[in-house]
Amino acid sequence: QLQLVESGGGFVQPGGSLRLSCAASGRALDSHAVGWFRQAPGKEHEGVTCLTTSSGDTNYADSVKGRFTISSDSAKNTVYLQMHRLKPEDTAVYYCAAVRLFGPCFFSGGHYPYWGQGTQVTVSS
Asked: What is the DSSP string of the chain?
């Protein structure tokens, strides 16, 4: 069974950067789509970005476009989320998730069967 573990969260000042990692085990991430989702205090669960590993195609929520970048390293079986120019509203628990998929990825988490435990990102002065 595919298992996912997020890491790299922490406390950062507005305008700063963080790099989150999603390490997979039990199965290769090729032939999967991987998404990053977040849950902020008092807000709904939302999709942030996703990547289809077979094609390299990506998609981003408008709120993070131009600031966040999703990427993968097949040798390490790991997906990354590079976050720049962080804002207080980016504060949330960030989760990665995966689904078997060759087509365009999607943000809805309802059909992602594999999830990590989450990592906290706090952006504050």
From this structure: --EEEEE--EEE-TT--EEEEEEEESS-STTEEEEEEEE-TTS--EEEEEEETTT--EEE-TTTTTTEEEEEETTTTEEEEEE-S--GGG-EEEEEEEEE-SS-----GGG--EE---EEEEE--
Closest C-alpha to 45, from 105, 106, 114, 110: 110
Instruction: Give the integer Cα–Cα distance in Å for 63 and 78.
Output: 24
For 59-116, the pLDDT digits (tens) are: 999 999 999 999 999 999 999 999 999 999 999 999 999 999 888 998 888 889 999 9
User: In the structure encoding, which two tokens stand for residue 14, read together?
Assistant: 């507005």
Q: Which residues contact 103 (CB under 8 A, 6 or more apart)?
A: 52
As a whole number of angstroms, the distance between CA 91 and CA 46 comes to 12
pLDDT tens for residues 69-82? 999 999 999 999 99
